[in-house]
Amino acid sequence: MLQDVREVFQLANVFRESTFKHKLDHVDDYIARPQSSGYRGVHLIYRYFSDRMDTYNGLKIEIQIRSPLQHAWATAVETVGTFIRQALKSSQGEEEWLRFFALMGTALAHRERTPTVVDTPSLRAELKEKLRHLAEHLDVEHRLRTYGTALQTLEQPSAKDAHYYLLKLDPAEHLVTVTGFKFGELEQAQNEYLEVERSLKARSGSDAVLVSVESLDSLRRAYPNYFLDTGVFIDAVNRALK
After folding, report:
1. How many alpha carbons fall within 13 Å on the CB side of residue 41?
2. Which of 83, 78, 98 is closest to 223 using CA atoms?
3. Which tens digit of pLDDT belongs to each residue from 76-107?
4. In angstroms, rounded to a whole number, what is the distance separating the alpha carbons of residues 236 and 233?
5. Could you count the other beta carbons within 10 Å of the beta carbon of residue 143?
6. Topology of domain 5-67, per CATH?
7. Is the pLDDT of residue 153 over 70?
């Protein structure tokens, strides 16, 4: 886990200077130039290359690097969007929620001493006033805490001592299901992931991901959006309003 925005740039430079066979196509620096939504982070886009099998050569791979505060912002956007069933992370949905997250993008940029979001107040007092109005009007803290506690986690027996984890998020049922697979069961894990992904296509807000981590604790830290963990973001909002 990266500690701050300084480490984000350090890691991005490590990738840029590496001897990957994959070719760096371009870099989108959303910290230097935040998106109007408030999103910030560094994206490195590569073109895949293999000298053994050229099936996927030329396809693009995107690596997203974010600080803890930037990741907390993205998690909160995804959490709210999941429950109100609006594509907030694609800048679609209720205008007040979109504006709130844009303002919080600037509040977090102030903390990290990085460029702020366009069309947000330059004066901190004005920013704080507008943030407070929306936070109270939207009942942000209560709603985010409710979303987090409303979700039940169903861990299958196979999840213990696993190497691969299949996460299935179903906001309609307020449930995230975690299924584990051992190191030699990658093909089975991939097949089940594809089956789950197909079954979720028609269900708004549902999602699935197959990941490899060392433990369930690591899984929760690395993928807070699947467990709707908004604690860090709530703390950031309260700090911005002080």
Report:
1. 20
2. 78
3. 998 888 777 788 888 898 999 999 999 999 99
4. 5
5. 15
6. Beta Polymerase; domain 2 (3.30.460)
7. no
133 vs 79, 83, 139, 144, CA distance in Å?
A: 21, 22, 10, 17
Residue 180 Cα distances to 141, 147, 193, 209, 229, angstroms: 33, 25, 11, 12, 21
The token pair that represents 64 in the structure block: 């997203």
- Residues 156-173, mean pLDDT to the nearest whole number: 75
- Residue ranges covered by each domain of the chain: 5-67, 69-149, 151-226
**Rounded CA separation 29/24 (Å):** 14
Alpha-carbon distances of 30 from 33, 66, 106, 170, 241, rounded to whole Å: 5, 10, 12, 30, 24
pLDDT tens-place string over residues 23-49: 899 999 999 999 999 999 999 999 998
Question: Where do the H-state alpha helices sit in 61-183?
Answer: 68-84, 95-112, 124-137, 140-150
Dist CA 171 CA 194 (whole Å): 19
Find the range with the poorest average confidence among 60-64, 180-184, 214-218: 214-218
